[in-house]
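Fold it.
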Amino acid sequence: MSSPRRILIVDDQPDLRKLIRMTLELGDFDLHEAMDGAAALRQAVALRPDLVLLDVMMPGELNGYQVCERIKQDPALAGTLVVMLTARGQAGDIGAGQQAGADGYLVKPFSPFELIERVESMLDAV
């Protein structure tokens, strides 16, 4: 049996992290959490997740786009999938995510079904 896929959930809102965790606990995933960009980068380097669910707007020195860029520029993390989570779904926001190297985009509020379906289909494709 293969080991569970590792997912890093990054959002500054504890309630949203909890909701995402509860949704993904239905699948066979090894779940980890970070509450800001700096913690997300540290954990990404330490954990080498298969996928990062990454909030765009977070407090601190790094926003989601910057974290995504750094993950994608790190050769050790190059294969990590990044899905941006944001309340801002305008074309410019999606374009900024694509420019940062994001593999996917989910606009808040999203349904738990939509979340797990997107995560599973992206992980199954690699």
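Helices lie at 14-24, 37-47, 64-73, 91-100, 112-125.
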